[in-house]
Amino acid sequence: QVQLVESGGGSVQAGGSLRLSCVASGYTYFMAWFRQAPGKEREGVAAIYTGGGSTYYADSVKGRFTISQDNAKNTVYLQMNSLKPEDGAMYYCAAARGAPWPPLTPTRYTDWGQGTQVTVSS
Predict the structure, then answer these.
(1) Are 37 and 89 in contact (CB under 8 A)?
(2) Which helix (DSSP H) or strand (DSSP E) does residue 55 occupy?
């Protein structure tokens, strides 16, 4: 099992930016960020194939969020710009040791972090 530790959440005004980080304790094949707001289902935000760098985004964040990786540090980042109140949620890092397809489907991921809260005020 891979341990995942997220950081970087916080409170920001609409239009602001935050960068989330997720450090993995071991090998991963795909890593992704998901989010869940109260009363809503967990939804995929962005995913990255750690072997080649291919990235995938939810339509709601395309052009505003960027997922990236630093393989030397076993770390994946989520740069979030132009934040909106509807982006507020608990954000979770997840890892898959195989190829999750579709890449933003929560059930395809086997390892999860504890989450980091993002609050966006209007």
Answers:
(1) yes
(2) strand 55-57
Q: What are phi and psi of 112, to 5 degrees?
A: -135, 145
Sheet holding 75-80, edge to edge: 4-7, 18-24, 75-80, 65-70
Per-residue confidence (pLDDT) for residue 52, from 0 to 100: 86
Token pair of 95 as six digits? 């890892």
Distance separating alpha carbons of residues 122 and 16, to the nearest angstrom:
10
Give the Cα separation of 67 and 52 in Å (integer): 13
Do residues 9 and 118 make contact, with C-beta atoms less than 8 angstroms apart? yes
Closest by CA to 103, choosing from 44, 60, 50, is 44
d(CA 60, CA 77): 18
Are 91 and 20 a contacting pair, CB within 8 Å?
A: yes
| Residue segments in the chain with a per-residue pLDDT below the cut of 70 | none
Unique residue bearing structure tokens 């291919």:
54
**Looking at residue 35, what is its pLDDT?**
98
